Fold:
Amino acid sequence: MALVEMVMPKMGESIMEGTILRWLKNVGDKIEQDESVLEVATDKVDTEVPSTASGILKEILAQNGDVIPVGKPIAIIATDGDEQSTSPAAKSAQTETISIKPLQELAVNNDIKAKSHISNGESLRFYSPLVMNIARQENVTMAELESLRGTGKDERVTKNDILDYIQKRKTSPVATSEKQQGKEPAKTEQKKESASFEQIKPAQSLSGNYEIIEMDRMRKMIADRMVESKRIAPHVTSFVEADVTNIVFWRNRVKQDFMEKENTALTFTPIFIEAVVKALKDYPMVNVSVDGDKIIVKKDINIGMAVALPSGNLIVPVIKNADQLNIIGLTKKVNDLARRARANKLTADDLSGGTYTVSNVGSFGNMMGTPIIMQPQAGILALGAVIKKPAVIETPQGDTLGIRHMMFLSHSYDHRVIDGSLGGMFVRRVADYLEQFDINRKAFA
Structure:
C-alpha cells in the first residue's frame, strides 16, 4: 500500500479556495481514478471533484462547510503499489517526499495571490468569498472583520470564526448597552461601514397571504453580482431590428442533414454567436474590460452564453476562442455547455475567462430585453424572439411589402469606455452580418 494525498484542485483562474459541500464517499470506500469523491462550491460554481488515484479512501481531512485553499490536502487515498520499505518511518518519509514540496510551493503562490487580491487600500487581510457573503448578509462591518482573530492558516478568518462572532454579537451586553445609551458616534461609524456592503434596506411591511422563500446560494450570488455590476458600470442599451429570413430558411433546409451527420441539433444560437464574433473583430474596443483608469483590450474572443437552469437560476458558461470555431464547432460547443449546465456538470473553468456575453431572451418568447453586464466585461447582447411580421422589401423594381422573419438585438454596454456611437455601430454590424447571411451556404464546409 502507498498513501497518496488528494488536494483541493485548482478549478479555474482566480479561484483560490473551495468550500466542501458534501462527501460522496465514506472512509473505507473503494474509489476509482476520476470517480467523483466530493462536491465543492466556489464563488463561481458548485462542482464534483474526481479522485486523483484509485484505491481506498483512508482518511477525510476536511469536513462539510470547511473552506480549503487550493493545494491543501483534503483526503488520504491508500493505493496498491510497491513500497521500498514497510516501516512507518519510511512511509512517512515517502509521503513527505511526494507531497510537501508541491504544497509549500502552492502555499507561496496562494500567499502572493492573496496579497495581490487585497492590494486595493481597503483591507490588509484576505477574506474568502464565503466570509464576505456572510458579512454582507449579517451587516458585519469591515472594521469588525479587521478586528476578528482568525483560526485559519495565517490567522485567516474562517466561516466558523465569523459565525461565532455573529452569535456572540447578538448576545453581547456591550452591544445591548450601546443601543440603550444611544451612542451616536458608534452608530454613525457603523452606518458608514455598512454602506460599503450595500446593506441599507428599506423597512418592509407584510400583509395578507404570502410565502417567504429563502434564497439559495446561487441566487444570492447572482443577486450580489447583478447589484455590483449596476453599481460599477453605467449601463446604456442600444436596439436594432434585424431581418433574419435567410437564416431561418437556411436552417430549415439543412437542420435534418446536420443532425444526421453531426448527431447534434442546429439551433439559431451558434449562428448568432458567429455574427457577434465577426463584429467583435471589426470593433475590438467592445471586447474590453476596465481596470481603474486603464482599458484592457482582450485579444481572445471568449463568448459567454447565458443558460437558464431548471431551478430558475442563471449561469453563464464560456465558449473559449470562439473565433477559431466554424459553425459545426460552435454548435457542438453551445449544445455541450447547455447540456452540462442543466445537469450541473460545469466546472469553474467553464465559467471563467469570458470577454463578451450573449443572452437569448427570445427562447422565452421575449421580443427584447435590457441585460446586465457580466463584470468585468464591457458589453452583453440580448437576442430577441424571431417573429414573422410584414416588412418593406427593397427590390430593383421598387419597394414592396412581404412577410419576413424579424428579431430585435439589444446591446447593453459600459458607458465608461463604450460611447453611444461605438455601442450602436457594433450592434448594427451584428445585424448586418445576420441580414447578409448566404442562403446558399454549405453547412459542412
Remarks:
- The CA atoms of residues 261 and 444 lie 9 Å apart.
- The longest helix spans residues 88-117.
